[in-house]
Amino acid sequence: xxxxxxxxxxxxxxxRPIRPDGVDKVxxxxxxxxxxxxxGMLHGKVLRSPHAHAIIKSIKIDKALKLPGVKAIxxxxxxxAAENKLEQSGEMTVNPMHLSMNILAHDKVLYDGHAIAAVAxxxxxxxxxxxxxxxxxxxxxxxxMTVDAATKPGAPILLKDLRNNEEGDKPTNVAQxxxxxxxxxxxxxxxxxxxIEREFNTAMVHQxxxxxxxxxxxxxxxxxxxxxCSTQGAFDVRSLSAQxxxxxxxxxxxxxxxxxxxxxGKTTIYLEPLSVLLxxxxxxxxxxxxxxxxxxxxxxxxxxxxxxxKMGATKDGKLVAAEIWMAYQxxxxxxxxxxxxxxCIIAPYTIENFLIDAYDxxxxxxxxxxxxxxxxxxxxxASETVIDELAEKCGIDPIDFRIKNxxxxxxxxxxxxxxxxxxxxxxxxxxxxxxxxxxxxTGKFRGRGVASGFWFNAGMQSSATVNIHTDGTASxxxxxxxxxxxxxxxxxxxxxxxxxxxxxxxxxxxxTDSIGHTDVTAGSRVTFATGMxxxxxxxxAERQLIERAAKVWEKKPDEVEFxxxxxxxxxxxxxxxxxxxxxxxxxxxxxxxxxxxxxNARGVGPGFATTVVDVEVDPDTGKVQLLRCTVAQDAGKAIxxxxxxxxxxxxxxxxxxxxLNEEYFYDDNGTLRNSGFLDYRIPTCLDLPMIETIIVEExxxxxxxxxxxxxxxxxxxxxxxxxxxxxxxxxxxxxxxxMSPPKLLKAILKHRGATQHSAAAD
Amino acid sequence: MSKKTLVEATINGETVEFLCEPRQSLLETLxxxxxxxxxxxxCLTGDCGAxxxxxxxRPVCSCxxxxxxxQGKNIVTVEGLAINGVLHVLQNKFLEHAALQCGICTPGxxxxxxxxxxxxxxxxxxxxxxxxxxxxxxxxxxxKIVKAVLDAAADIRSQGEGKAAAx
Lengths: 762, 167
Description:
The structure holds two protein chains of two kinds. Chain A is an alpha+beta fold. Chain A is built from 21 helices and 28 strands. In chain B, about 35% of the residues lie in helices and about 15% in strands. The chains are: A alpha+beta, B alpha+beta. The interface between A and B is large, with 58 and 60 residues.
């Protein structure tokens, strides 16, 4: 492990206790969304469009309603009008009208799988039969599947009301153009000795959580609704569902179930309002669970992209200019993370002259959702491949090239303000000094590649309470759904502050009525921001403990100290008192102790990662085998190192899947042809080696414990790292994902033809 | 819709009788009829392994088997791994190695891993990866799962040697 800049002496933080929710999860007791059942519960299913782009001329539900066991059917007619405006929701911006149109198609279907109607019946099988009895008449329109098709003159328009900031009142598929620039790129390229210009295309990919979306809605006759669901943000489900349903936020309670993976994909809503609508119509609880095919066709994914990168460097390896054009497939509605991609694409490097143009383009594909460092993996594939090529031109080791140009504290970010303390160079040095990077890679068709990545990380709002029980143990309550072990971190932070053994702290994720507002579990923010709220709440409890001890001792609070989990009276020989000893006296000294805090967290510490992979390419098939993989990431401070490593390993594995296998495969009609895990192939354990991790701890000065947040950035480097490794193995520069056997083989054969041709010419 | 069928099977050591529709999968029967929701649905096509159970000792995707086919079979689900509240060594090793994040795939992995260790108490890393390749995990990158299974195997072997030495 690299040197830590967090020099404080922790007792609990940095250790590896068993996670508090662990036993429930290894015994099958943990209750995920689909595990909820209520007396009299009905089952819902959703009718989905078989067309990518069509006008809905009519929907007839009479036959379906007559099927015995069918209790209710809802269509967009059951939804109130929603406003056409932009609102911030967690990491994403939301347009309530588009959200409503995505929950149930209004007058048009915009992608294969677009929801049209939902049925509630006494069993899921009857609901499914009823779907087949709903008659929908369509006027099929030509599908628009790519950025190029969506932007060519005369392209069919998806959303008649869509306008962008540059083309006035002209209907368009281009939702937004972002531009970021600095310096003088013409002068920059003039100063360059080497200029590389490449175009990259990446396929749309899915977050691939194993648990499908689910919701149980219960609407009571008093107008109160409760939703049980697996979500990354119960408060977001509440506010978004309220908008779609036209209900006051305060009338909806959302109970977050255990969540079976999300990676950004469970930060929005799909089934939740439908469960409430159907419950309202039937008076019964209604459960909806997506099939895997529905998950792939209609939830997530992250955009496919087209990115052109031109970068220049001087002979001695200094990056001097970058010109970037990028367009992302937003899906059926605006809101791809292309701006984030634009802000991250060269963020790890100091480049004095750059111009970045970024376009958000609607196409007949599912509306994209956040996916781990949204928009950045695509971008880094492009920039980190070009940087690798420039390093090679300059004859400089790719890690040294990154260190030479890498951002340090004080360097300007893409938007201008300087970085505070960051650990990018440290991640590069950690890889450079790793046993892996120093080892010699031998053998035919083998290559080693490196790449780096940046992600902002997020702050936002969190609430926490710390309750001291009558026996001196504690509970810590937050509103952050635990997606990868964060409850362990919350318990550890509480235990650290209060000097308790971690097993004496029980962490709880509360529903929306039981804790103050807490933004979505996203942006790597839980351990950072909710952790900050927990730290402050525990400190608040500590302050109250001191007051109570002072009362017991008949002293002033400033004559009492709390250290090592014990209350000490200053000065005289009063023996110290533990929380356990003080707890029975709470009642007589003022009542129970509850520490509270809420934060809108500032001081976000950006995350960096650098990854090295060794691959072997089968030149006859184009199949790539990962031989070895090491990732170094700056965690700021690792609260529970095992779960930090877990985030690094999980993100890396997703990046490898993105690099080698995963893609949305649509036919000419815009129908998704690989809507199952057999054909949408995520990595299995046979595809991967061990993923070695190096946690860098460059403390974030903006957090009381130095935490940065670790959930996302590890997904950013692997695609480029794999591409760079493939180049070293077989000499071809891949500019598209996935680098699957047919695509790589084609590139190898083309390259072989070209080299044989030039050899013959010599 | 055809009528329900009475099925008798041994589930986690207990003889149980239950009614299920011919079209209900074993997974649906376990979850919705018998309230054993530890087995998870990830795909319903036998690709993700989250619903893996042991049927007469063999790992089976319970989404690919009908409930009525359970007649006379001996079935073990994740709920049957711990005996009298004492966790199976695999369950302990998954906790110690932090081999789960969200936990949705964990029941299936535990069952597949138990099946492997029952057959092969001394697996290599490759054998573990091969045996678990039918179980998808999207959170962990598999690293800690493979390590937990290898460590559990070592533990089981050393316990076995301890017993042998005591004899």
